[in-house]
Amino acid sequence: MYTSENIKRRNPVGSSAGRDQGPQQQQDDHYNNSQNQNRASVDPYGPNPLKPAFQHQQHQQHQHAGTAYGYRDYYGFGYAPSRREYSANKYIRFYQENDYILIPTLLTLVSFWTRFRDIKSSDYVVWDEAHFGKFGSYYIKGDFYFDVHPPLGKMLVGLSGALAGYDGSFAFDSGAKYPDINYGFMRIFNAFFGAIMVPLAYWTAQELRMSQAACIFAAVLVLFDNAYLTISRFILLDSMLLSATCFVFFCLTRFRNERHDPFSLDWWLWLAMTGVAIGLVSSIKWVGLFVTALVGLNTIEELWDLFGDLSLPKTTYIKHWVARAACLIALPFSVYVASFALHFAILQNSGPGDAQMSSLFQAGLNFNDFRNNPLYVAYGSKVSIKNTGYGGGLLHSHVQTFPEGSGQQQVTCYHHKDNNNNWFIKHAKSEGVPEDTGSPQILRHGNLIRLGHEQTNRSLHSHRVKAPVTSAQYEVSGYGDDSTVDANDEWVIEIVEENSHHPKDGQLRSLSTTFRLRHRILGCLLTAENINLPQWGFRQIEVTCDTRNRTNSPHSLWNIEQHWNDKLPAGEGTLYKSKFWKDFWHLNVAMMTSNNALIPDPDKEDVLASNPSQWPLLAVGLRMCGWGDDAVKFYLLGNPIAWWGGTLSLGVFAFTVCYYIVRRQRKFQDVTPMEWDQFLAAGKLLVGGWFLHYIPFCIMGRVTYLHHYFPALYFSLLLFSFVIDHFVNRPGVSSKVRNVVWAVAFAAVTFTFFFFWDVSYGIRGPAAETMKSRQWRGAWNIIDDHKPNTFI
Amino acid sequence: MLEDTLRVQTIYIVATASESTLRQRSTFPKHTPPTDSNASATEDAPKKVIKSVFTSAEKTNSLIALAGLTALAIISRFYKINEPDEVVFDEVHFGKFASYYLRGSYFFDVHPPLAKMMLAAMGYFIGYDGHFLFDNIGDKYNDNNVPYIGLRALPAFLGAMTVPLVYMTMREAGFPILTCALAAFFVIFDNMLVTQTRLILLDSMLVFFMMCSIYSYVRFYKTRNNPFTLKWWSWMIATGVSIALTTSVKMVGLFTVATIGVAVIWDLWELLDIRRRLTMQQFMNHFYARAIGLILIPVVVYLFWFYVHFAILTNSGPGDDFMSTEFQETLKGNTMADGIFVKYGDNITIRHKDTSVYLHSHEHNYPLRYDDGRISSAGQQVTGYSHEDPNNLWQIYSDNVENTKIGKQVKDKDVIRLLHVATSSWLLAHDVASPTMTTNEEITTYSINEDGSRFNETTFQIILESGGDKLRTMASNFKLLHQSTKVAIWTHAHKLPDWGFEQQEINGNKNLVQKSNLWLSDNIEGKNASEIDQESSKAVKTRSFILKFLELQGKMISHNAGLTDSHPYQSSPIEWPFLVKGISFWTENETRKQIYLVGNPLGMWIAVASLAVIIGVSGADLLSRRRGFYPLNQDVQKRFYYATGFFFIGWIFHYIPFFLMGRALFLHHYMPALVFSYMVLAAVHGFIFIEGVDGPISDAGPETRPRQLQRAVVPVIAYASGIILMAIHLGSFLFFAPLSYGTSAPSVAGLARRKFLPQWDYHFAK
């Protein structure tokens, strides 16, 4: 490494110590330096004194090997200096020799203590425990349910319940008191994931080649962030999501540091680990796709670097592609699919989520009553009708009317079973056949029918009125009743496919026959395309009459799901197995559709929701439970110093990069090329990680909550430490100043954490009395219940 | 054949050509392409200093092409400009605004004022007095005596003048005549540009000023080797003024600012490079010069138009309600000045600010049980009623029974009670769900004759949001905050069912910060009516320009973002380049004529393909250079990135930002980007068919190294393909012309033939 004596800092233009000669010189310097026994010139705070000694050997070994990345990124985030000075005192020496084990161990222990202590302080269901605890119960009971998140995290919750000896009988109603179940264990299980973020932060900082103090500081920021602490201590998915995100990022940095030795065992190991990790994180929540995008961008950059290396044989280059495709695409996808396979394997029984899935899938669940359906559907039957498209729902109507268009009764597709999904199949009025003519007449291809809604008696109707959202197509509504004669109520059945061993004889069978409903007058097809209606339609799926005659679109295909007809014999119960890939895809589309429906209701201000612009400066907290004076109250609030510091560091980093770039354009060398590359490479990943986890929330229309910021926060916290590290390790900063800066930083974060102790561990007694001094920002509703209206 | 196509002339200038001055001037020896025998015959002084790389014959040809294209442009825009003599599409707005300028009455619009003032000025010169308000599409101009042809002539003229600007911009950027003509031709015969620029709309001015900006910037960039000369300053200031004018037409002009801003920043970055050998002082001079020319001057110009705007609009008008009380008080004849102080004991009407309904009550009760099974208090209904009615009167009382404060003025934060005069009952809010929103509280009344046990439910705090600290009619906006349950009285445009006579629901809103909680006292009736004359002060107040400007600008931005109501002809940006959807501008039922806005479909689709070519070529170039191949000749590559790339950036900047906008968007928002895409199309055509480039085109400076003179070779195939493209474009234009001009009605079959995409929902197609 250089010291301030032997490198001219601001070498002016045209100086022989110009930038172009830099790299070679730097490497030589390093090389010579490591042979050099003059230890006094080595900065004890230089980058990464923590790297275990055996790895330095490797670096030197590859130092002059043919390089794929040029000198620039040859070492990923730079390389570790090789020697340290050891104390004569044997205890200190022991510490020095083993600090790379001792420090993370200590941090982890403290982390365990903060996360696990007093975890049973509230014996009632807090916040979203009501959801995730319940989902965990379903796994224990094996009941099929539906949720917008992938299954892995909830299966782990189920596992924790199973380990705790819980039988799945508790309903997890919000605010309910826990009965005799070991919820403490379930919470600890979750908190464990939150706790391991701390050592992961430490090791990641190490991989980013931060100094020892900075690595500890990064870990302490995570350790003493009140928000991370609070969210980890309940039965939620966030602690798993966060630790998995941290783990992905750790693997990524670790892998990047292996780039000097491609296709080595370590290289493969960490590449594969990265792949597995992104598979895991995406299987917990789709938010994991953001860190996956970070890995993707990093991979593109690496491949671009390699592409420019003309010395690299083409086959090697292709090998790089193949390795990454296998480990970063195929592997994560397998993990994701496996989590769904497990999900289907565990949930064998019929449950509350049935209606989201295809009828065939539902029929395959235990305790499902479809097998009692009469096989053949006839006039006079009562049926529910399922859209066969991926994520399709049941044809539904309710008393509410369209606010625009015809103003008639709404017809939608709905994903839950209720009586409003039931329709009677009746003769079309124009045919003049009297209802109830004794023996039921089985429906066949080409039959003309009218569908009467059981609850409201309205008929399924379409007319030349624009549909509310898909305005190019016609509206479908509920209109008239049995006494009304309207040709627009008549639909033609077109049988399309028979999914059973029965012959395709043009008869309509429940479950297995798919058919189209074609409007007799307009000739359009009854269609539901997973487009959510606005709030007035309760965000259910829009049903239209599609004039484009797209006969092969699954969204215009339907099948009879439930079928009641007293006059027909009950079905014999032969069931057809649905295919895994179809179910997998179906469930994912359904998740996406439901997720899209989670947009804020403009008529209803949600006190819990917050705007992304409120997050970086912590303008908002979140009440996780009721605020009664005698309740133990939890307020989701970050450590203000950590949050503000993290956000500030983004600005400082951006400014610093601009400053250096402009100065470099004038050939001022503020940092050595090696430092510069290291600074940029680590900063790019951290800032990129923050952006990828933050900006999407600003763009997406979905309702957002404070805890959506937590993954982004992790990157800003690391950046906070990174930026301080960069500035205190400049030449000209004395070790005194350095120590003072670190001391102040550590003290501030630690103090604030303890100051907000009650916020995380539970406010006891009236909030107004105890929390007055904690009200650092007027917008926090920690005492007064008001909707924060400041955006910054 | 190879030699034939590579006839790039290379003549080196001797560096010491003019040794006596020791300066390397732009002394390009006269050069002649071998094909031009006339020119080569006249070449007798090889060291003669020439100013341009182009020969005089070429210049003449270029002028002829320019004149011809301009003539075509004028014809295309002015053809039957008198038809239809009816209000078409957004003429409803912009014609109306011009009328308001001529009347001087204040109006509000989300766009900056310049283009509308230009229309008004045009109207003024042709003697139009602003009597017509352009209320509905289809209103007859001739019947109303409106000189609409004159009004349309301005946009049509500027729309036509965009064409020579496109041509000259391309020419200045160094493209051969064929390429320039191709770009101009595509701009002339695009149906969208034709339709949109021959009506009383703003887009013609927008595109015109936008092209002025681009043209000026290209000219400015070409003088970069002679910085701080008069020419350099002139073109820079011209650029600055043009971008300001563009932005003064529509805020979309900021995209033009961004396009030029990026180019300027990139240019400054190059200047900062140490190899350019500028001292820091020199660099800062460059920086300051641009700050003045491209930031300061544009800001002043932009503000100037607002100053004029306020200077013209001095009378109260339809835009009053959009502005704050303080602003309205500056307008002549505004109602704010009539505001009088409300005193305890007065009978007042209370009107909701957003929905303009009166707080109303009547002798009917809420039904005990609603349709959904919920139960109400069955108390007296309190509704929002939009007409004047004795039941709108409320008498204002203090909460203090002993000290009634009768006759004292009502102040901010006072706690009051409101007595419904007609039914003698107190306004009351309580914790019962409102008829339609379970989250909000029901508002009702209870009789004055009953005991006082519900006193606490009848007290409201009056919180003034504007207009001083005392309650005034008209001037004060206030919230009524229920004291015991902390809800604000609120209403929304939601009608109650039959039992509520379809009046508007009023309820207690828990969200206290909503803007829609605001009410104002409309009028005082009864008791103190006689005092009104004494109290009122009619003086018009003044307000500083900057405050007025900031308020208006803020309102413009927030209203623009608030234009989210869906519109049948709105479209999403992704559809525009592919012309997925059109807009019906105007129809006439008797004649079955219609104006339907679509671009020239074939032309636009070719343009999109050329954009793809740009991306493909630059991508391939990037990849091959990464692998050490340099497939493009250096000058061709430079032209490709600096000129074509600049236009491409223009397209990007005038298109992509729309994806981030939440408001309702329309096809015509693509117009600025469309012009860029046609320029890119022509440049890409040149890139494919024309060998080499003309150069150098920039002025040489004192330190410019001698450069290679080169000429582009335009082979026959380039002409042939260019003509084919023009023919396709023209054919497509003529095919759709009946819909663009609205002068003749195609038959049903004819419309069906013109329906290239199913989403083009023409009228009279059946």
Explain how this protein is built.
The complex is a heterodimer of chains A (792) and B (766). Chain A is α+β, with helices and mostly antiparallel strands. Chain A has 21 helices and 14 strands. In chain A, the strands form three sheets. Chain A has a six-stranded antiparallel beta barrel. In chain A, strands 2, 3, 6, 7, 10 and 11 form a six-stranded antiparallel β-sheet that branches. The radius of gyration of chain A is 32 Å and the shape is elongated. With 766 residues, chain B is of the alpha+beta class. Helix content of chain B is 42%, strand content 12%. Chain B is elongated and about 100 Å long. Chain B starts with a helix and ends in a 13-residue tail after the last helix. Mean pLDDT of chain B is 85; it is low at 1-50. Classes of the chains: A alpha+beta (792), B alpha+beta (766). Chain A: InterPro entries: ArnT-like_N (IPR003342), MIR_dom_sf (IPR036300), MIR_motif (IPR016093), PMT-like (IPR027005), PMT_4TMC (IPR032421). Chain A: It is an enzyme of class 2 (transferase). Chain A: Keywords: Endoplasmic reticulum, Glycosyltransferase, Membrane, Repeat, Transferase, Transmembrane, Transmembrane helix.
